Amino acid sequence: MTLVGGFVAQRTGDRRHLVLGFAAGLMLGVVAFDLLPEAMEQAPQQVHGVPAALLMFAAGFLAIHVVERAVAIHRGHEGEYAAHSHGHSHSHAHGHAPGPGQGERQREQGVGIAAASALVLHSMMDGFAIGAAFQAGTTVGTVVAIAVVAHDFADGFNTYTLTRLYGNNRRRAVTLLFADALAPVTGAGITLLFTIPEQLLGLYLGFFGGFLMYLATADILPEAHSPHPSKGTLACTLLGVGFMWLVVGLA
Question: What is the per-residue pLDDT for 90?
Answer without folding.
Answer: 39
